[in-house]
Amino acid sequence: MRKSRGASIEFSMIWESEYAVHNERRFITRVNFWRDLFPGRMGEAAEALLPGERCRESFAAGRLVLPFTTDGIVRFKEKCFESQQGYHSLLPRIGRFYPQGIAWTAFGCFRGNMNPFRIIGIENDTVIADTNHPLALYPVTLEATCVERRAAFEERGGMCHDISETVTSDGPGMQVPYPGIKTNFYSVYPFRRQNENEDVFFYGVPRFVNHLDETASNLIGGIYSKALVSGSKVLDLMSSWVSHLPDELEQCEVVGLGMNEEELAANKKLYGYVVHDLNESPLLPFTDDEFDAVICTASVEYLVRPLEVFKEIGRVVRQGGLCIITFSDRWFPGKQILPWSGLHGFERLGLVLDYFHKSCLFENLHTETVRGYLRSSDDRQRDKTAFSDPVFAVWGSVKEKEAL
């Protein structure tokens, strides 16, 4: 019986749009070098890697995904768009993505078809949709980092990974606007929520719960560790009893701003804190250029006036300082802004990226996503899903103040 070699590998797909530099990280626990399909010469190079080593290869647009074709642009009558989805009404918005099953009669598919299309125009009663992969126009660089080598094992069949499909599937590319088109995120602004009761009552009760699993929390800590400098003064925006900052940043002077004083007082990372409701007043109670960086973890989805808050972030962070926003796919039901739960995870990434752009205060923008890592063995949710919560991040630096 044939013996195969394997490894645990993190693949990073790096690409650039006119809006930001993007990095889509996808971890595969068991890569099989005999069975799995690799693009280009990636398989040979990855098989030779030792733990900690990496290799990379660049690919032209249309190599990792199908190339863009005009046949992918489809026109159909708006009546084919099934707006009523169960108890929810879904309106077609320009720039947004939807599963093809919503317009199954137009695409000739089943109602359950989840392949995405993007609305790029609505003319009279006709919808113009693009079914091309959102990465079809972008060249990419694929990087493989060996995390662990696996001993040779007897080949007994099993799942085959198509590496190109794995790293490009389910979202990458959705976070940038369609060329020449602004995505309609703001049909109602300030944003509304299902639970419009005052936040002071909802957050008045302390909730000492973890919003992210341990693996996701550590991955976010890794993003902060790479971006922040020890000794910096950091504002932890919309903070609670956990700040997700790694121990190597313990020399940072961290100030928390949140809604519950008991939670903030229990946060061992905080040097000080302020109780403040950003939905009541988006003005930050700090002086100009007071901080080296702002972080916001798993909370941006609650802001009803994020554009005003991002203007304030640009004011209180010094020139060249950072703003880093991270989030996942869990939130307090009813308190998230209404567009949020109806967006694909990568569209949420695009919405937050748009906050940065609309403020006109930031440059050197980056997005990063991390998927595929496993939950810890003692995680109580592991019996429901072995995979860790996905991580989404957007960050940028404050522009030269004199130029603002």
From TrEMBL:
The keyword Transferase applies. Residues 252-325 form the Methyltransferase type domain. Keywords: Methyltransferase, Transferase. It comes from the Bacteria. The keyword Protease does not apply. One of its GO terms (molecular function) is peptidyl-prolyl cis-trans isomerase activity. One of its GO terms (biological process) is methylation. CDD domains: AdoMet_MTases (cd02440). Gene3D superfamilies: 3.10.50.40, Vaccinia Virus protein VP39. This is SAM-dependent methyltransferase. The lineage of its organism: Bacteria, Pseudomonadati, Chlorobiota, Chlorobiia, Chlorobiales.
